[in-house]
User: Fold these one by one.
Assistant:
Number 1:
Amino acid sequence: MNKKFSSLFANDGKWRRFQPLYQAIDYFLYTPGTVTRGAPHVRDGMDLKRLMITVIVALIPAVVMAFYNTGLQANLALQSQDAAQASGWRGVLLTVLGAGIEPSSALSNLIHGGLYFLPLYFVTLIVGGCWEILFACVRKQAVNEGFLVTSLLFALTLPPDLPWWQAALGISFGVVIGKEIYGGVGMNILNPALVGRCFLFFSYPREMTGNSVWVAVDGYSRATPLAEWADPGLTLSASWSDAFLGFIPGSMGETSTLACLIGAVILIITQVASWRVMAGVALGMTILALLFNWAGSATNAMFQVTPLWHLVLGGFAFGAVFMATDPVSSAHTRAGQYVYGLLIGALTVLVRVINPGFAEGIMLAILFGNIFAPTIDRFFLDRHIERRRRRLTSDAER
């Protein structure tokens, strides 16, 4: 930026208190003016900024499905009610834009879904960003790009009709209690986006669970396929392929396993996320689901849910790819990442099958895994240190 303008934010400048905010805008819009010229100093092109941008790129398929499927489910519901247009300001905008409420129109679905997703996302982005800037100014530290990913992940896990003020409250709890009180980015032990969602889940269960929150039409009720599996009074209304592609009710960005798998490929190729964690989650889920399939139950239909169905139900794929692999709150040792993933996958199935009051499970399983990640790492680090000590002692005795 202009040197005269930047001097206002220097240590002796008039606006020095807002230096973190100036740095955040400067780093986001411009290339740093000081770069390393000598090749020996270059070890890796990946820094925190590129890491966060890569995660956002990997989330694009899930975001597109959040737009499309949210609009599709709303348009299908309106069509079943013989409605002429959507209600409220969204209906006016759809009419002005000429999009209508036709489920067979991809443009109508994308615009209608966007009118639900974008407001929630902007609320979480603005509120989460304000908390980040506030803590950065108080601590006199640079504003970190991490809140861009946290706010996007959080918005994708929400039902479409959630009140905006609850979204603001949830992201505030996630950023402040889940991250900032531990010291900010890199210091948190829990995934902040999941902490915020967990807070909303237990504080406002009526807006976060049940059959009436997943389709953005007032007075319309439809259960998710996972709830239909868990409730013996309901009939499964979706095919496996619909669940895999994401054309089912659910949290806006979690319904499409295909979109999550595309994101997983991007994260693995760029080495941003650990494939060991993803493999561990899938393996843990498969082993315990097969055990329940083998045991069977005459009263609990969840015992018969196969691993392929668990993969496409609820937020399993989204959690395994984007939440469990959080580079801060997950396990860091290679062997520990397998155990950490196995724990999350097994716990997810255990909660889904055993707990009749909570059909989901991946959220609590990941938070539980976050708590045990340091212990898992410590176990494998101690084993490694002890193995090297015995090797050195053996070499010295020869």
Number 2:
Amino acid sequence: MDKSQYLDMFIDESKEHLQAVNDNLLKLENEPENVAIVNEIFRSAHTLKGMAATMGYEDLASLTHIMENVLDGIRNHKIFVSTEILDVVFESVDDLEAMVMSIASGGDGKRDVTKTVAKFEKIEKGESVGVHMNQTEVASTQESIISGIPASLELYDDFEVTVLSQATEQGFNANQIKISLREDCILKAARVYMIFQVLEQIGEVIKSTPTVDALEEENFDLEFTVTLITKETNDDVRNRILKVSEVEKVAVITLDLESYKRKTIDSEVHIEETKKETAQQAPTKRQKQNNSVETTSNKEKVHSPGSKTIRVNIERLDILMNLFEELVIDRGRLEQIASDLKSSELTETVEHMSRISGDLQSIILNMRMVPVEQVFNRFPRMIRALAKDLNKKVNLEIIGAETELDRTVIDEIGDPLVHLLRNSIDHGVEKPEQRQNAEKSDEGKITLKAYHSGNHVFIEVSDDGAGINRDKVLKKAIESGVVSEENGHNLTDKQVYELLFSSGFSTVDVISDVSGRGVGLDVVKNKIESLGGHVAVDSVLGEGTTFSIQLPLTLSIISVMLVEVQKEKYAIPLSTIIETAIVKDKDILAAHNQKVIDFRGNIIPLINLTDFFDVPKTLKQDSYHSIIVIRKGEKMAGLVVDSFIGQQEIVLKSLGNYLTNVFAISGATILGDGQVALIVDCNALIK
């Protein structure tokens, strides 16, 4: 079988399952008793193992299999979840991710994972890594709770104990039955179904371990345990089950409920555990109570159909977008022809086509929109690791992960956000003892928030840490020559905070391996501005810092002001324009060999685009000048053009590989009349 055609699908789905494992491991750390989370992790790992084995990546499959063994121990209460165990599981997920990335880049997916495997083996044997293995503890405890019952068997909640008590009062026997299937059993779920049918004929199943769902999905090795109420003898129960083929061994034990109840009253811990387990298994139990043992015959697997989707390669969407752009250009030409011919029928047809193409444009743009969740998902794991390295307690709160952005923007914002989050945890959030001294909770809080506003998406990274020390920043800025002492003392708080974005600027005495205020923030600012966005910082000393990023919804379609420079047309992004103006010759001043104007009390430089782009002069210059005032952060400049055409939404096209790094031009667009207009990169014009 040619598996190469499935490779892309395998890589995509593997990444999704690994992300799901990462997310659920973080949840499990906060809720270590929640078996449902363990089952989710197990399901993802099991699917990944199956896919890897099918595709022939045996190393990936075998590591996942070993991880499954530990997860199985956790959900069967043989292993208690601890930070040390989760560290090892996280480590294995890192290995799996590296293997998948190796496959994605054309490699063989092989990796030396002997250390991780050795740790897993130690965990399974209870020997190890600071792991609180408890097989012996559980055994001794449970044996003291349930007389005559071996370790690793069932714990019961109040409801189950009541049902078992009532059954025994009515003359039924309460039995725990441990069933082992043969190693060569192929259809385990089918055997389980047959066994449950046998049990249904002679009594009622109260509980099963693993759960019924897990048994149906074959998420168990070869053994499972059921608790049965019946009037049949133990031998009769055993012999009936052994009649089912491929059953290796059956152990039937009668429960001593009185002893069990006495011991559970003494053990608050076990009561809590069983209550939580009850909450997770309640639906299954209620079903069992109402309708006897409809366990395996009940096929009500809750799989919400949800919305149907298909995977589409982003390159295909790019091709579709390019074709659509050609259609838009032809539409513009048809509009021009209809206007010239003055044909009402042609005009109506073109207008109808314009409406249809407008809807089509909206659909195509929406297809390219993806939730920022795809980027945000990687951060909880990063925060956990950083907090551990820095001996800090940090809680990351994510708000608005469903907010959508164009795929091209999504691909670019990951690194800037990593910089900001690392800065927040390293220099924003204080150590637990410092926070307690400041009368704060010892656990710091970092909030990552995304939301729509107009045609922009805002992403905020805020912390409740120490805030930015204005005086320290200003002192460092003066010492490093970023700002003069005279000018420095006239700066507002916000202007001082903006100094953090200066290249190479840092307030820390010793630059950290993790981050330093200023180290990397200039990179963040440049990246965001290259995306047509804007980043700002605000802070309150002792209360925290907030970095706010403003991004355009999409980079493909932007709103511009079309202008004429001599006979050429240029597009200036609206996001950078403050306003337009007409100024006379007498209003233009000169300062330091630079033409300037007084714009609302600010002296701003003028840049004549005719001279700057060396456009052939064909028009006679009069005494009035069209000015577009643009902004980059706090800095402003005036662009001198010959005339304004008007506002328009355009499709951004790159200049291609032959015209890379053209100064102050970020791309081009094709207008409706077929002309090409260059898009001015205003950020490059203002130093």
Number 3:
Amino acid sequence: MTLSAKHILGTRDLQREDIQLILDTADSFKEISTRQIKKVPTLRGRTVINLFFEPSTRTRTSFEIAGKRLSADVINISGSTSSTVKGENLIDSARNLEAMNPDILVVRHASSGASALLTDFVKCPVINAGDGAHEHPTQSLLDLLTIRERIGSLEGLKVAIVGDIMHSRVARSNVFAMQTMGMKVTVVGPPTMMPVEMCRLGVDVSYDLEKSIRDVDVIMMLRIQMERQNKYNIASLREYSNLFCLTLEKLKKAREDVLIIHPGPVNRGIEIALEVMEGPHSLILNQVTNGVAVRMALMYLLLGGTDEDLN
């Protein structure tokens, strides 16, 4: 079986079979990261360019490690070191990179749709590593892998996505992907952080954290995105924390076997308490580990690998 998508721009257009294939392939790649020599020759001679116009530690490093573990040549370009600081626009940057014949272009950009735009100018597959407040598909896929790994399946699970829904590309990608996989999603947050289109996406909307987490399998806490706030989104961080920070006290309202995930980075004590973050329900570090496997799987599948090759 092969991936039907040429690019990974979002989860909205991914078919259930595609997501299943990506998760299964990632599962098979996880073992590589446990070896003493963490490298296979799968993508030897291939070139992966990480083009990051926004700051990122976790995602950029994860893509870099993923490419290197498959023996690809990985080139990292950040906004501050690219020719955009000299006035070159995104399209011209893409055209120049295309002239060097990369095999995969990984793009993070502050503008929604930037990754999709580049597909008109480059021949190689493009992976969206986060575009504005639009989508972050690889984060969603690693979230699904982490949940499936612990529970065994995704169909029928109930999930509460909590926090700054308005600015969260992670929330959007997860709403689309989770619904595709048969999961029931409730988005939870203050009304000022709840975009109106959420009501049209088939999710339940709640403004009450304690009520919303009572009967869910998974609680996904989101980072409150300080850099994207304006003074009208919340009255104060203290008020937000009082109502929506997941503390041990609030967690008592949830099921005993509930799982907690967070895309990071974490604002400790604002969206999640330290004791919860480091407690037995938390899978936050499992998500980071699985991120490498998911990105390895995507690079492999986008360059024509099949699940049969792995068997």
